[in-house]
Please model this.
Amino acid sequence: MTHDQVVIVLTTAAWSGGVGVLGGLLVWWGRRASVRWLTVGVASTAVLAVVAGTVATSRAMFLSSHDLGVISLVAAVAGVVAIAFALAVGSALARWSRALRDEARRFGESGSFASDTSGPAEFAELSEELRHTSDRLAESRARELALEQSRRELVSWVSHDLRTPLAGLRAMTEALEDGLADDPARYHAQMRTEVDRMVRMVDDLFELSRIHSGVMRLAPQQVALGDVVSEAIAGADSVARARGVRLGGEVEEDVLVTADPAGLSRVVSNLLMNAIRHTPADGVVEVSARAVPNGVELAVTDACGGMREEDIPRVFDVGWQGSPARTPDRLDTTNGAGAGLGLAIVKGIVEAHLGQVAVTNHDPGCRFLVRLPA
Ligand SMILES: Nc1ncnc2c1ncn2[C@@H]1O[C@H](COP(=O)(O)OP(=O)(O)OP(=O)(O)O)[C@@H](O)[C@H]1O
Ligand SMILES: [Mg+2]
Model:
């Protein structure tokens, strides 16, 4: 490089650099302004840097005044073009950003984001992210709605289920008061049954609310599954006998599981009572328990005649009882009908133990399968 060229490079670098720094500061200072003015600022800085370099080199006598005039004219025209172009690009950026802002606002109002944002990659990414958020929001809203719906159903079912026995109790007490009861002892027994049923229902509700609010305290310890099953069978024996249902099953010996004993026996007895209740006289209910890799498996098989496929996903729902109609027949205490809480409690307890419960049809009835980690 000749000496002159070195001088030209250094002079231009100094002047253009100075203008660049000034322009940079100006753009930094105005960084909160519209993107339109920022792009104009960048383009103007570029043009002015060229002009500053040119003027400086002409001052150093490398350009004749005629050449300087020509170059200045060229720079002026190119500058106008560059600034106009920057303005156009800046306006487009501002427009895309405004469109995105409007869509985000609509998202806030309607809760769903529908966008076909064109524009640079960053805008597309932002819009994509908003779409994901919108999908997640929609999902959680649907979940919440379902939960709210089931809560409402539960309240109305429970109040219905309480109102019926309460009306019965009132009628019976009135009859007793007025001395109209022909068989007071039967009335008393009946009242006792109704009260027991309501107490059980309120207990179940309390248990469910503890499970759902996550305050259920598990006290896990090593439990022999065989003992829990035998106890449950012994407890259900009188009901099974009264209904003519035979209880059977096989439990592998020495199957140990780490679980809350009270919770586990509640799971087994709820499943067992259901199975007995849905099995016709002379039917068989079988309980089996065995060790499987990584845990234990408990199965309660009945002779209920099978469940409708569309009911299977619903049996563990709170308050679900097979049919939305709550006829008095369902409330007949002699067949042990409850409030549809038993299986929801089973599921809650099993899941609190990090296990799973499922139901399948298994000729001649259905089978509830509980898997618990050992
Ligand atoms: N072993 C079973 N065989 C056939 N159907 C069943 C069986 N267990 C449960 N179901 C069906 O699932 C429904 C829900 O059962 P769940 O145990 O939750 O409530 P419930 O037995 O009606 O009342 P609760 O258990 O609160 O006293 C039952 O009403 C019944 O329709
Ligand atoms: Mg039940």
